[in-house]
Amino acid sequence: MQVRLYSRFAGRHRGEFALELSQFLAAITPFNIALALFGVVAGTVVGSIPGLTATMALAVLVPVTFSMEPASALILLGAIYTGAIYGGAYAAILLNTPGTPSAIATTFDGYPMAKRGDGDLAVAIACFASVFGGLVGALSLLLLAPPLSKVALAFGPVEYFWLSIFGLSLIASLSNGNLVKGLTGGAFGMLLSTVGVAEISADIRLTFGSQTMIGGFGVVGALIGLYCIPVLIDLVAVPDRHLKVEENVKSVRIGDAFRLTLRSKFNLIRSSVIGTLVGILPGAGGSVAGLVAYSEAKRTAKPDQNFGEGEPDGIMATESANSATVGGGFIPTLVLGIPGTPPDAIVLGALLVQGVRTGPAMFTQSGSIVYTFIYGLLIATILMLPAGLLIGRYAYKSIVTIPKAVLVPAVGFMTIIGTFSIRNSVSDVIIMLCLGVFGWVVARFGFAASPIVLGLILGPIAEQGFVQGWTIGAATNNLFGMFFGRPISQGILLFTLITLVLPLYLARKKRKAAMEAK
Amino acid sequence: MLRRTILKTAAAIALAANMGNVVGAELAGSVNYIIPFGPGGESDISARFQQPFFKEKFKQDLVISYQPGGGGAVGWASLNGLSGNGQTIMGVNLPHIVIKPAQKDVGFTTADLNTFYMFHYTPDAIVVTADSPYQTLDDLIADAKANPGEVTMSGSGKASANHLAQIKFDKLAGILTTYVPFKGTGAAVTALLGKQTKAEWGYTTVGAKQGDAVRMLAVAMDERHPLFPDVPTFKELGYDMTGGAYRGIALPNTADAATTRMWSDMIGEINSDEAFRQQMLDGGFAMLDVGIDDMADFMAARVEEYLDDARKAGLIK
Amino acid sequence: MSNSSVTRSSGQLGSLIISALFVLAGVITLYDTLGYTDRDSQVFPQTVAIILIICASISFVTRFLNPIDEGGFGRGSWWRRILLIVTMFITCFAMPVVGFLPAGVIAFAGGLIAAMHDRWSISNILVYWGSGAVVMIAFYTLFKFVLHVPLP
């Protein structure tokens, strides 16, 4: 089955099983496996440090790869990328700070789990889910890349607009009963996203003449500020331990994690598919994939599941989806020559320098390099299982055992150096700190950080989609059809409505039942 | 190599004459090459092409880092605060560095930037999908004349090279098209391939990258691009339009004359390498060799041209 | 609890003030958008600002009409919180002057003292400061020399 699908995909290599085998064998040389392992480990470490992004690590490593075989170089870069997306979960679970934007939704349930003493379980679940999602993404890349790349093209401005609205509908379920406060936060976050030079229009907005604000609020810096600084402020104020530790807990909880993950196979499959599809969209990325998958997992939750209060399925949804975006993101990168995310763009640049022609001609002209790379990505994802579990255990143990008096300043130092290095700018650090204090204060009065972050991330997607859709619709005198007449838009709109209305309906039904019982 | 030795000697003499100045016109380790955009754009790709040649010729690493924000403004506003010892350089782009400061106070002016070399440009081009009904530029113009405003054209950003080209061409051809701004060339090309818009204002690099999937109707060059001998220039078709987005490199303005000259010569040396030129041309770029000596004239001409275009387009006052 | 004590509780007052600030942010945005030259840059901020004003106003009014003692800064010592944040800010301002590592020490020391709830002893002073130095130097080396971040 695999061979058949694969050869259809490869086109030129129809039936040439020997060639496929040779590409696979080329991928599993000891050197390449060592590179993949190193890449995954380095990536995991990079991803777990807030502010240190996969983009940065890859940018630094590109010159190193000039002296390597193109395929080996690509395997190294792909492994780092995969590892970094998984590594983001550590900080999300143990410090409530997404190490990468992809891990935002991991904080929703990961941190509550860690707080109640299940941090090791959460880290292990994140690892299983990431490997599963990563495999789904990489296999989609291997088997279905050309047809799936059509998804990237079918998504026009209006579809992006509705996708962002769908993401924003998550605010309703995140704001725990106080919808108005959630919406306030979301709207405020969207305003923050407009500060600075406008991406697609010719204005500089909301800077009030200040030059420090021209660059606007960077997502990574804002994440560190809004999530990490409040945790630190709360940590120093009281003498309690950071995370609860069960004294007589079994030493290994990998088995538990595996059983829990296995039980939620539908969630895993659905989230991985969402992750792959969203990953294919060049304008979206891992953060949106994680949020969409989380939203869907929450919508279909069983009555005994408490999303937002430490529900393992929440971590599984996010982590499988964001890892699936790695393979998914390479689909438009390799098939269309259009990078989905900044790390994809760097890999694309490295390919160009290596003399590999990207774009439509790539699969036919440079097929062997591309397939060796995809096999390498698969191997790296599998290696992430042992490496991730091992590093995860170590990370959990060190966060739990380090005394608070060292943990707080170490994390504080990390936030400063991490934020600085995003754009080599001190003012970014100051903005991060101000946002952090602001976020802490407003959270104390019911305006949680997550709606603000959702607004900040989805705001630009909504704005650009809307402006472009409106421009095209007005030019063709078909505004209504533009926004409501396209099938994909209608589908997303339908899901949005279900997500918004279903909880209200269920709550009413429950109340009615309770009344009747009385 | 010999030229470089002479250069170094000359620099050393200049240094000796300039007593007390500890800054030498010699590289002292790896160089930080800042791209004031995210990765994947034309600025990044061309810098990546330079990277191995730099290492080979001058034995030092060229470390590329990204400092996106404000359409490049964040990087350029910070450039003159960086050390001028020659270990830090930054990519600069035209028309960005002219239009941005003309619109509002963005923390730098065009004259502030110590641009020492402009090494290539990406000529403007109108791109359509391979199965587009527009076979020639005339087809597009005819459609735009018959249905004013209904021909939608994607492009990267507003008040950008693409946008200025669209406005200019609309005037020259006497047509009205609708410009749809996207975030970067990649997104604009995606919109074109997905048939969200009927055409794209892009660069010759788009044609090189997308190959058979797209067709270019015309390019804004004096002569045809060697990679696309079948694509006519606007001039051939009767529209006086040449230009595109120009890219170069700047040093902080604290760098002394010797350092600036050394850099201009080094980038010039890479630019004259046949292998490098070929790689750039294959990528759809067009080469440009404006070193430190010709920079003032080149910049003055470009500034005048861009400001004039932008003023006519109503983008600046 | 009597009604007046609720209306004057810090949770109630703070919530009202923050809702009012969000309304203000919306108004300022609307004012700022008047100066834009491009219609495309106005649409989105204006729409969002109006949503913000409406939501924050509803939040303000409902809270004003139904005062509850919810929210507030909770227990915990203020000097520790302030020390942590202030030292981090000082680090930012000192960084360009004294360099990254010495400035980082300020934030680290502030955080350490703020988070130190146990009794100081010779051994933990040595261990904590020692590990602090190791952490900082390790990160500094990683960023500056491995990742080539130009730290001041």
Overview of this structure, please?
The complex is a heterotrimer of chains A (about 525), B (about 325) and C (about 150). Chain A has about 525 residues and is mostly helical. Chain A has one domain. Chain A contains 22 helices and two strands. Chain A has helices spanning about 1-10, 15-25, 30-50, 55-65, 70-95, 105-155, 155-170, 170-175, 180-195, 220-235, 255-265, 265-280, 285-300, 310-335, 340-355, 360-365, 365-400, 405-425, 425-445, 450-475, 480-485, 485-515, and strands spanning about 195, 205. A two-stranded antiparallel sheet of chain A has the order 1-2. Chain A starts with a helix and ends with a helix. In chain B, strands 1, 2, 3, 4, 5, 6, 7, 8, 9 and 10 form a ten-stranded mixed beta sheet that branches. Chain B is globular and about 60 Å long. By secondary structure, chain C is mainly α. Chain C has helices spanning about 5, 10-35, 40-65, 80-100, 100-115, 120-145. The radius of gyration of chain C is 23 Å and the shape is flat. The model of chain C has no long low-confidence stretch (mean pLDDT about 90). At the A-C interface, helix 4, helix 9, helix 10, helix 18 and helix 19 of A face helix 2, helix 3, helix 4, helix 5 and helix 6 of C.
Question: Which structural class do the helices and strands of chain C define?
Answer: mainly alpha
Q: Give the domain tally of chain B.
A: 2
Pick out the low-confidence regions of chain B: 11-24
Sketch the major β-sheet of chain C. none
Question: First CA to last CA of chain C: what distance?
Answer: 55 Å
- Largest pleated sheet of chain B: 10 strands, mixed
What is the tally of helical segments of chain B? 11
Which stretches of chain C are low in confidence, meaning pLDDT under 50 for 5 or more residues running? none
CATH fold node name of the largest domain in chain B: D-Maltodextrin-Binding Protein, domain 2
- The SSE order of chain C reads HHHHHH
CATH architecture of the largest domain in chain B: 3-Layer(aba) Sandwich
Q: What is the count of β-strands of chain C?
A: 0
Helix content of chain C: over 70%
Kindly report the name of the CATH homologous superfamily of the largest domain in chain B.
Bordetella uptake gene, domain 1
